Amino acid sequence: MDLVLCHTTADFDALGAAVGLCVLRPGSRIVLTGGCHPTVRDFLALHRDEYPLIERRSVNPQQIRSITIVDASQRDRLGKAAEWLDLPHLNEIAIFDHHLQADLDIPATFTQIEAVGASTTLIVEKLKNQAENSDTPFRLLPSEATVMALGIHVDTGSLTFEGATARDAIALAWLMEQGASLGVIAEYVEPGLSPQLQDLLREALNNLRSETLHGYSVAWVLLSTEAYVPGLSSLASRLLDLTETDALLLGNVYKFGENENNRNIAPESPVSNRLTIIGRSRIEGTNLSELFKPFGGGGHARAASLATRDVDPLLTLNQLADELKSQIPHPPTARELMSSPVRSIRPETSVGEAHRILLRYGHSGLSVVDAGDRLAGIISRRDIDIALHHGFSHAPVKGYMSPQLKTIAPDTLLPEIESLMVTYDIGRLPVLENGQLVGIVTRTDVLRELHQQKARDRGSNAELSYCVMPESVEQLLRSRISAELWQLLSIAANIAQNRGWQLYIVGGAVRDLLLATDNTLALTDIDLVVDGKCGSDDSGAGVELASSLQKLYPDSRLDVHGQFQTAALLWHKDSAFGSLWVDIATARTEFYPYPAANPEVEASSIRQDLYRRDFTINALAVRLGAPRSGELLDFFCGLLDLESKQIRVLHANSFIEDPTRIYRAVRFAVRLGFEIEPQTEGYIRNALASGIYYRIQGENGRAPALETRLKSELKYILQAPYWKVALQMLGDLQALRCIHPSLELDRELWRQLRLLDRCLQGRKKEEGRRKKEEGSSATDSVTDVTDVRKKEEGRRKKEEGRDNSLSPIPHSPFPIPHSPFPIINIPDWQMRLEVLIAYLAPEYRGKVAANLQLPADSIKRLEVLEAGKNQLAENLPKCELPSQLVLLLRNYELPVLIAIALQSPRSARRQIWEYLTRWANVEPPLNGNDLKALGYKPGPGFKRMLDDLLAAKLDGDFGDRAAAISFLAQRYPQT
């Protein structure tokens, strides 16, 4: 374990430097050795989960490998954690500090103590240097850049303190380029006030009036001064922070005489009052600029001012306060924010079992309910870690849970929820309705909603958004799909809303909508997810909604499948929808019992449903129906990845759990023209290098993800027009090892695939020629083999009586009728897959084909391939005449011959190719009916006679039908 220690009462500089070090040294954990500054405490109350913090008491000293200390160089500033410095097994003790005057009393193996304004600057310089010299794209997370920028701002007084340097300014500029949020910085940086403003601040605090509406506090105050006071905007910001008010109107009235600016006016000229009002608001939906416009004021929606004269100051201020209150929207309630259903356990559940449940579902805490399903307490991951650390895995959780709970009701407003979390440092709040646990609101839920509010208001505060989000995509969706499809979605949303559900369109349809450049988007496959919000009783919500829709659209076909009642509505060549598949499912979460297994799914929330998906660009959802219809749900910054054109996985173990996601990553990257994000590529390579898939296959007997699911992904890739690029990318990643550990895309295998492609292209040209001759247009080469066969037989019969249509064939001294390429009743993608499998050692081919659940004839071909190749290698050199070659090769299936040709030397390949393109479909000049007409009796001898006729024709022993009859009379005289 590598630790980064902050000094006691940690400030933003210590925290920022520690976070930066964790970026430099992935896997490191931060320890706050003894509390933190109040503003840091408030900051971490909302943002703790974004940084790798660990409790000091959760650290096992024997597992510490190295210690790095930031913003301190003396033992007494580390509290009890200073004891760790004496551990004999430490590999390194490093110090990064900017206090030159401090006496170093720590036995450090590395120190960097330099005269800069903040310790964070030293770390930022290292990160900047790493980014400039890295071969791969480097970018900080906005949360990382923001806390480091806060460290420099606070310790340098926003570059105004005497100790601030140019290095600090350069570091800050780079952090801004990396996405540091100026809005968050402004929220926690404390600018200074002049003595006059400090006096006014005290007066304002004493006279402030406030009112709470919809959970938001609005305050206003009127200050009277002798003259204009500069810096009122700073006073307003400080007053807003100190009172924790959501909106503030700060008025200042002062006397203004006309003779102050004009000496020609008599001294007795009237003196008028001037009123200045500074407005600040943190409430989404309010617009101070519009509020102040009638008085000639203006600014931004959240920060504006006005200056007017000859008005009643108090009346004007009160009037503006009332109008501001009328602007306040109804904030979200707990019911809209909460996650449901809630994962709960009994008080008797062991700590070890609770830990396994947390691992399975990825939660940070669990609700504990008694036998009557009443809430008894909550146990957090932190509580469980400490219990496990002390060896109490078998103890019941009731001894470690928190029984004194703060709870909320479904109609509790967001501001109250946020206040509870910050005041009591609570990471999750249970939602109770009639004494029953119906949901839970987590710190993440609150942060997400606050972030989305800021994103929706990005016009005035764009820097506040960590991810760019459109306010609504409803108009975009409505404008790009057909009116009939929009009506279908609207009806579905209304049905769901009437049942108390929320409906979302998710996944690929949302991705393609946001990527589309045309005004019309042709959707043929739509995924809808129903979030019941009401527990397990709604696990069949998807089927119920689909059934209701099917009654309104009787031309659709309803398919119900899956353990959790997933349903699909299908239209085929419909006049309104064309061919459309609408999949409707209840929101669910999933768990993989072991790598490459089939997932186990359970009903859950929309967030968990999106988290189980493969990549960020596919984890997008659009809300259908009220409230906030058309809102884009982007929990994982998928929109940014769409803009950056990159494929990014949701979590590090994604490819361990499901190796088919490797193939999906490649498929999406090539199809969309995206790049696989470097860290995601690293996860792919690590998963493949681990050998976990085949180790699990050996332990469990099978790995379902490597069977039909892998075959499906291979089919998608190998039948696509971009299959070559995708296969090369899979080869570069060494991902063909998912098929078999020994399979790699080397030059020889690539040569065989290219030769096959030439063969398949030749087949397609020949089929196109046939259809053109028959007056038909080209369709799919494998869709209607029976029809093609019938037409081919008819063409052959027509050619039997046309001796004048003979044309010369190379390597034959006599004219032979043109022989079209033989029909192969196997799709191209399967031919390519069989070539990949055939490249394996013979003993693996049949097993791999069976594991992928290929058709029985495919498995058989691969099993006999080696024997056939050896037989032809022995017999092909003996074939001197065309008839010998035909009689030898016609005993082999055409796919087998092609596979053998791909693996054979050029001479054998040329013979097989000549057979396929010239002689495979040559017919004897006479058929069975002709033999009967000539007086021969049907029987086993007919086959021998026809073979002799064919051989003679191939070898040029006769040139027309009469000669064939003469040949037959001589060879088989009738008695």
Structural description of this entry:
This protein is an alpha/beta fold and 975 residues long. It contains 38 helices and 27 strands. The strands form 7 sheets. The chain has a 7-stranded mixed beta sheet with strand order 19-20-21-18-17-24-25. Strands 6-7-8-9-11-10 form a 6-stranded mixed beta sheet, sandwiched between helices.
Number of strands: 27
- Indicate the multimeric state: single chain
Taking the alpha carbons of the first and last residues, their distance comes to 100 Å
| Strand proportion | 15-25%
* Low-pLDDT sequence parts: 260-270, 458-471, 776-793, 795-819
Rg over CA atoms, rounded to whole Å, is: 38 Å
Mean model confidence by pLDDT: 84
Overall geometry = elongated
Salient structural properties:
single chain, 975 residues, alpha/beta, 7-stranded mixed β-sheet, 6-stranded mixed β-sheet, 27 strands, elongated
